[in-house]
Design brief:
Elements lengths: L8 H9 L3 H8 L2 H4 L18 E6 L5 H13 L11 E6 L2 H9 L5 H4 L7 E3 L4 E3 L5 E6 L13 E5 L7 H11 L7 E6 L5 H8 L3 E6 L10 H11 L3 H6 L15 H6 L8 E9 L12 E8 L4 E6 L7 H14 L4 E5 L5 H10 L5 E4 L5 H13 L3 E3 L4 H8 L13 H14 L12
Parallel strand pairs: 1-7, 1-8, 2-5, 2-6, 6-7, 9-12, 11-14, 12-13
Antiparallel strand pairs: 3-4, 4-5, 9-10, 10-11
Helix pairs in contact: 12-13, 14-16
Length: about 450
């Protein structure tokens, strides 16, 4: 059946002119009549198997929130004894305030998509939405992932996942909570960003992905808005992301761009005047701590910088990452190990001394924020004065997602911090040690 939303207004008016009020109400709240194909749940995965995650990627105002709300409505109001009916539903947004204002009370939220006779009740004090048939949707904030521990669900709706500060942590905890019903399912509605979790979800065989553009929902948006957005942003990166729902690989206003890295990439390094290993130690050594950034870089006879290796390891006890850095120092015949000493000072140096007291260590201190320290290094990349010898996917992801808040993908950019210290030492600090270093 052709969606009524695609019909001109006059044709819709004629179609409903002869109907009585009860029929009109039923039609108004019949999502099948109004939805586009990309707003309706998929039948199965590409392999014909039941899907576990429906990922709805869309531009701003493309109707993805309405699709998520309608799916939750269908799950809660399904036949009483149907395996597809959900009894416990998780609503996860960036904050509780956003869950309530967008997912529940918004123009396209849960309360708006229900007919008056079936509308659920919002219980603000309990952060939940309750239907008359006993179905309950609980509200959760992605900035408090531990709140998802304990409850269990047979359905979940995650909104704007690409904006969450710790998306992987929240997603992992939610997966363990999806343990009710015959087939627990999750719907994700988000304007995309190039974050690792989003790519993992897309690559999962149990995921079905739908895509939509802002223009696809033009019938429900001001015509002047569509025209103005196209005029201003067109095919720019921000337009591709915010209007077309594309995954843009670099942060829109970030310090690094993917083309810079691709254009300067080399298969083999030239002769080098200096080689350093830069280390960004983790603040703590527990299992959930940040990684220890370890990056090897050199300065060539041509005056350019060359990134040689990313030896970053997950934050463990100090002796472990010290040994890893010293191994990189020896493998690449480096001049020195440059280590950030803001956290620990001489204690950090003593860790290296306890492993090998012959290795030269240079302490550096961060007197400015991460963004200000990184700006001069990004300028060198923009000028084509730094090249990567090989590919470093995780390092390059941190570089291209690095934001003015000093975070990359919601976390401290350990690999990037080490890179910045290495290039700063080689190219932005007076040089004292000439000579050729060869592997």
């Amino acid at each position: 059946m052709r969606s009524l939303s695609r019909l001109p207004a006059e044709q819709r008016a004629r179609a409903f002119a002869a109907e009585d009020h009860e029929v009109l109400v039923r039609c108004w709240y019949d999502w099948i009549l109004w939805a586009r194909d990309d707003q309706l749940p998929p039948e199965a995965t590409a392999e014909g198997e039941p899907w576990r995650t429906w990922l709805i990627l869309g531009g701003r105002g493309s109707g993805k929130t309405r699709a998520g709300a309608e799916w939750v409505r269908a799950q809660a109001l399904g036949p009483p004894h149907s395996p597809t009916r959900a009894r416990r539903i998780a609503l996860v947004g960036e904050t509780i305030a956003q869950v309530r204002s967008v997912m529940v009370e918004g123009v396209s939220g849960l309360l708006s998509v229900h007919a008056p006779a079936e509308k659920p009740v919002l219980e603000v004090s309990k952060n939940q939405v309750v239907w008359r048939n006993g179905a309950i949707a609980q509200m959760f904030a992605a900035d408090d992932p531990e709140s998802l521990r304990g409850p269990q669900f047979d359905a979940a709706w995650c909104d704007e996942l690409a904006k969450w500060r710790r998306p992987q942590r929240v997603w992992d905890i939610l997966q363990f909570a999806m343990r009710l019903g015959a087939l627990p399912r999750v719907v994700v509605t988000t304007t995309p960003r190039a974050i690792g979790l989003l790519k993992k979800i897309m690559d999962d065989a149990a995921t079905v992905t739908s895509r939509s553009r802002t223009a696809d929902n033009a019938a429900n948006l001001a015509p002047a808005f569509i025209a103005e957005m196209r005029r201003r942003y067109g095919a720019t990166p921000i337009g591709r992301q915010e209007l077309d729902g594309e995954i843009v690989e670099e942060r829109l206003h970030g310090l690094w761009q993917r083309p810079w890295l691709a254009q300067g990439r080399l298969a083999a390094r030239p002769e080098l005047q200096r080689v350093v290993v830069a280390v960004d130690p983790p603040v703590s050594s527990n299992a959930g701590s940040d990684s220890c950034g370890i990056v090897v870089a050199g300065r060539g006879e041509d005056g350019r910088g060359y990134v040689l290796a990313d030896r970053t390891i997950q934050g463990r006890d100090p002796a472990t990452w010290a040994r890893a850095a010293i191994a990189a120092y020896r493998d690449y015949e480096a001049d020195t190990i440059v280590v950030e000493a803001n956290q620990g000072g001489d204690l950090v140096v003593n860790v290296f001394r306890s492993v090998d007291d012959t290795v030269p260590i240079k302490k550096v201190y961060a007197s400015r924020g991460k963004w200000l320290r990184a700006e001069p290094v990004s300028t060198l990349y923009a000028e084509g004065r730094v090249a990567h010898v090989g590919e470093f996917p995780e390092l390059e992801l941190q570089m291209c997602d690095f934001g003015s808040d000093g975070l990359s993908n919601g976390r401290s950019p350990d690999r990037l911090d080490a890179l910045v210290w290495a290039i700063t030492e080689l190219m932005l600090t007076p040089q004292r040690r000439p000579g050729i270093h060869r592997l």
